[in-house]
Amino acid sequence: MRDLVRSIRNKFSGKNHYKKKLQKLLGFKPGNVNVYMQAFTHRSAIGVKKTKVENNERLEFLGDSILDAIISDYLFTKYPDADEGFLTNMRSKIVNGKKLTELAIHINLPEYLLFNIQNFPNRNNLYEDSFEALIGAIYIDKGYEKAEKFVKSKILAKLVDFKELENTDLNFKSQLIEWAQKNKVKIEFSTLKHDQDDKIFVSKIKLNNKNYGIGFGASKKQAEQKAAKEALDKIENEWQEEIEIE
Amino acid sequence: MRDLVRSIRNKFSGKNHYKKKLQKLLGFKPGNVNVYMQAFTHRSAIGVKKTKVENNERLEFLGDSILDAIISDYLFTKYPDADEGFLTNMRSKIVNGKKLTELAIHINLPEYLLFNIQNFPNRNNLYEDSFEALIGAIYIDKGYEKAEKFVKSKILAKLVDFKELENTDLNFKSQLIEWAQKNKVKIEFSTLKHDQDDKIFVSKIKLNNKNYGIGFGASKKQAEQKAAKEALDKIENEWQEEIEIE
User: Fold this and answer.
1) Segment A132-142 mean pLDDT
2) Could you tell me the residue ranges of all domains in chain A?
3) Banded model confidence at residue B196, pLDDT cuts 50, 70, 90
4) CATH 1.10.730.10 fits B8-167, yes or no
5) pTM of the prediction?
6) B201 and B217 Cβ atoms separated by less than 8 Å
7) Chain B residues close to A82, C-beta within 8 Å
């Protein structure tokens, strides 16, 4: 029954044991253990067994902003001569679902999570959201500076390859084509003017004859980029499904 | 020639005088005056007269995130029982262009700004961007906690009516209709299915026979909301044009 309940009882029993486990993840002694428990609790887990914690959605709301602020500051300092276009681009390369999911896995966050796969068949965004909630929890427990230190020293300095990110292509169309070739998936783009009067283009993408993305834009290129982004997001979610958690 | 140059010389001459003026705005003694000068300098001002400061776009990038984090934290604490949907909604009611522009005017920020109207005929987002840059400058000069204190005590607690915000309608269509009635502007919505196969709707809005917004969505309502939002943004920019700055 490993797929049924994520062993809530085991994880939450023995506060001292849990505190030690948490310390391994954080690199410091947690003060308020409950707020971390909340950060790790997906709404699907609530109500299955009685847990006294709320789900992590409020902490995700908070952590998302705190993470953004910390990363913006880091980039601002790291690239003193870069303009805000470059900085914004770099930030989106870090705070996107795929990257945050990777980072969550790197720090073994999945080990700590509570969710119920029956109430929650589609694991979309689970790791990303929990990662953000974790940052929210650190902020609530220890304040901005501790959250900043955690993100900068444990995540950015250790796990993010900035040279590689600088060279990463944000061209979603070429990313998608590359993915399709690698995975032997048939890909079709169709891009049309929306109607004669408007200068609006509509782009649709099919992968193996199935609709995967639609995008609108003032140019053909813009419409294709948006459609490709949507298709990549869908693929990413499916890809997350295949990750082995236990 | 008041429209030509925003008296850069006058504003930047006399550092002590400037520091005092700055202190009036901030409520505390600034450390690094230059970073505030930078926050107030729109790119249109650079090169007109020789100023030794860069423009404010990097600080705007930073301040935007810091402001978001501070407001998220404030709402998280102020509404301990609210879900993340409500919190996200409230945050967007504060960090939107119109609201930030209002706040900037309330604290007399326009008095401090440097820009050249000849290089910059359209004043879109000037106050909003400078407001964000100011928060970035406080963060750089004094750190997160001082920025937090400034936003919470000088802005949120004093200038934002949360009861009113809670009751503010985020229904863009009804906002637009209300605006049009008040200003005796003819308004036309036309919403169509994009094509028979897709379940995509397209909504177009004309104000006094001129295109003002277009939106796409999975439902008629969604498409109309997006189109109305676009129209409202355009109106807001025009509205900003009419503000008297001097």
Assistant:
1) 98
2) 8-167, 172-241
3) low
4) no
5) 0.76
6) yes
7) 58
Chain B closest CA to A233's CA: distance in Å? 18
Phi (first) and psi of residue B41, to 5 degrees? -105, 105
**Min Cα–Cα distance to chain B from A172, Å:** 21
B81 classed as catalytic: no
Residue B47 has a pLDDT of: 62
Q: φ, ψ for residue A6 (rounded to 5)?
A: -85, 55
**Residue B64 is a catalytic residue:** yes
Q: Which CATH class is domain A172-241?
A: alpha beta
A223's tokens: 């419409």
Token pair 């910390």 in the structure block, residue: A70
What would the two tokens of residue A133 be? 């909630």
Mutate which: B68, B72, B91, B152, vs A, most A CBs within 10 A: B72
Looking at B128, B129, B132, B148, which residue is catalytic?
A: B132
- Choose the closest CB to B214 out of A60, A71, A198: A198
CA of A19: how far to CAs of A28, A106, A141, in Å? 10, 20, 14
CA angle A219, A223, A226 (to 5 degrees): 140
- B217 touches B225 (CB < 8 A): yes
* Distance separating alpha carbons of residues B205 and B145, to the nearest angstrom: 44
> Rounded to whole angstroms, how far apart are CA atoms B146 and A156?
25
Single-letter code of the amino acid located at A200: I
Distances (CA, A) of A243 to A36, A111, A114: 23, 13, 16
Q: Compute the distance between CA of residue B34 and CA of residue A77 in angstroms, rounded to an integer.
A: 17
∠ CA A102-A67-B148, nearest 5°, is 175
Find the largest Cα–Cα distance for chain B. 69
Give yes or no for B81 touching A (CB within 8 A).
no
Structure confidence at residue A241 (pLDDT): 46
Per the structure block, which two tokens stand in for B57? Answer: 């776009």
ipTM: 0.76
Q: Which two tokens stand for residue A202?
A: 């509509």
Query: In whole angstroms, what is the distance from residue B8 CA to residue A23 CA?
Result: 54
Closest CB to A62: pick one of B62, B76, B144.
B76
Nearest to A58 among B71, B84, B216 (CB): B84
Q: What is the pLDDT of residues A49-85, one digit of tens each?
A: 555 568 999 999 999 999 999 999 999 999 999 999 8
**Distance in Å from the first CA to the final CA of chain A:** 12
Assess A86–B contact: CB distance below 8 Å, yes or no.
no
Q: Taking Cα atoms as reference points, which of B123, B125, B114 lies closest to residue B6?
A: B114
φ/ψ (deg, to 5) at B51: -115, 150
B90 Cβ contact list (under 8 Å, min separation 6): B75, B79, B82, B162, B165, B166
Radius of gyration of chain B from its Cα atoms, rounded to whole angstroms: 20
Which residues, in sequence order, are CB contacts of B32 under 8 Å at separation 6+?
Answer: B140, B141
